[in-house]
Amino acid sequence: MQHWIFISSTKTFRMNDWLAENDFVEYFQRNKVCVNDIIYLYTTAPVQRIEYKMIVEKINIPLDKIVDDSAYSLRKSPVKYDRDAKFIRLKLLKKINTPKLQLDCLRSYGLNSSMQSNLRLSGELLEYIEEQFR
Fold first, then answer.
1. Which of 54, 55, 66, 114 lies most in the core, judged by the most C-beta atoms within 10 Å?
2. pTM for this model (two decimals)
3. Mean pLDDT of 111-120
4. Distance of alpha carbon 131 from alpha carbon 121, whole angstroms
5. DSSP string spanning the chain?
C-alpha cells in the first residue's frame, strides 16, 4: 500500500460541495496507484492545506463509466480526455480542518514540492500527516 498527496484545485472544481453530497470522487488516473492506497487531498490556494483522507476504491474506470460531476466544475470548457482514458475512484474516509496540515507546516516536515502535481509520501512527512488524522 502506498500513500499519496493529490491536488484539489479550488479554481477548477468545487470539491467541498461535491463531497458534502457524495462519499467519493473520481480522478484521472495519472499515477500507478492501487486499490487500497491512501490519498490525502491537498486543497490549493487560498486554503493551502490537506483536508481529506481517502482510499482508492477502484482503478481503471473507463471514461464512459465515470460519474458526471460537471455541475461542480469551475472550468469554462470541459476537459477533453482520450476515449481510452482511465480514472480512479477515491472513497472519503475523513475530513479535517487543521492548520497543522497547511503548506508551511508540511514543508517543515520535509515536503519539498510546490504542490503542482501528485506525489508519493513516505518517512517523517507521512508519519506527521497520519498523526493529524488519528
1. 54
2. 0.93
3. 82
4. 14
5. --EEEEEE-TTTB-HHHHHHH-SEEEEE--S---TT-EEEEEETTTT-EEEEEEEEEEEEEEGGGS---GGGB--SSPPP--TT-EEEEEEEEEE---GGGBHHHHHHTT----SSS-EEE-HHHHHHHHHHH-
